[in-house]
Structure formats: C-alpha cells, structure tokens
Amino acid sequence: MNSENEKQKGKGAAVTKTLTVTGMTCPACASGLEASFRNLPGVKEAKIDYNAKRATITYDPAKQTLQDIKKLITDSGYQVKE
Ligand SMILES: [Cu+2]
User: Fold this and answer.
1) Distance between CA atoms of residues 35 and 79, nearest Å
2) Residue (of 3, 9, 6) closest to 82 by Cα position
3) How far is the CA of 3 from the centre of ligand 1 (A)?
4) pLDDT tens digit string along 14-71?
5) What's the 22 CA to ligand 1 centre distance in angstroms?
6) Rg, the chain, Cα only
7) Which of 23, 35, 50, 67 is the most buried (most CB within 10 A)?
8) Does 77 map to a domain?
C-alpha cells in the first residue's frame, strides 16, 4: 500500500487508511479502540476488525495526521503497521 492518499491536498477531503493492528486480545479491545477514535478530532469514521487485525480510519488530513492516529493505537497498548 502506498502513502499517496495521505498527501492528498484540499480542505475537507477525507482520506481512508487501512492499518494493521496487533496486540489486541479480544473483541472488546477493538471496540475500545474504536471508541477512542471517535474522540479524536478530524476522524470521521473508525472501524476496527478484531479478527482481521485491521483498522480502517477515515479522517480529514487537514485536521488529523496519520502519525497521531498511529500514536493513539500505540498509546492504547497495541502495535500498528501500514
Ligand atoms: Cu480485549
């Protein structure tokens, strides 16, 4: 997966990123992480799939950075990779 999408210009243009999240031990971890994303400014939608270990995050690149999105995941105690 390339990272061209996150460099997309223009206000209000939402970007969707799919990340691999490891370290979750049960589905409640995924819902908890999802809830945390809802409180992160600029995040329009967050879906965490526990079985697939996949996070699909739609955010406004003018208001949020991929770096901070990853930081939320690692701060929550999980590992993330693109
Ligand atoms: Cu859990």
Assistant:
1) 17
2) 3
3) 29
4) 999 999 999 999 999 999 999 999 999 999 999 999 999 999 999 999 999 999 999 9
5) 12
6) 12
7) 50
8) yes
